[in-house]
Amino acid sequence: MMKLNGITDVFFDLDHTLWDFDKNSALTFNKIFEINNIDVDLHHFLSHYEPINLQYWKLYREEKIEKEALRFGRLNDAFLAIDIQIESSLIYKLSDDYITHLTSYNHLFDHTFEILEYLNVTYNLHIITNGFEDVQHGKLTKSNIHHYFKTVTNSEMVGVKKPNPKIFNYALELANTDVSKSVMIGDNYEADILGALEIGMDAIFFDVNNVTIDNNLKQINTLLDLKKYL
């Protein structure tokens, strides 16, 4: 495993890469169910919600649905999947409550601070995220990692989502760098890895779930493994 040469700029995905979305999301659901007096087994709910949420995000990335449809649909479908009927007005309230309270919890993946401190000495660090601007800003600031990143590019700024080349090119321009000097790190094979590779940017797949997709990829299982490449 060889160190990458000539890299000056390192781009990270945020959710599922640095910010532990699943853990923080579960804690948020527990809170908003209590607020709204919804008696449901959290584990049972999440076992249906999480794959449904991923599917809605795929549709959102592909420009097939808007933000509002994602926020309503993922919740509505999850309750239907566990045979619980919820009024639409309450679904909308839960959706709003979820966004309001999501950044109350800011668990990061193991070694996030350590690896950012290590990389920050040598590289310019950046974020490219498909998440919503207001929410992502809250995650970065409340988890106290915002100061590590020179630029933050989100899909709402650009009008397209990863893996669309436009968001990567926008991020490169914002960072005042180019593909030959840059590397993308993320957990989503389609959005982060294929998106970066498509424009000629190097990429490192964060295989957090140990589901190796392509043995030819540069990949890590923990954030500290980045030291092998950078």
Automatic annotation (TrEMBL):
- The organism's superkingdom is given as Bacteria
Under the heading Pfam families, the entry gives: HAD_2 (PF13419)
Name of this protein = YjjG family noncanonical pyrimidine nucleotidase
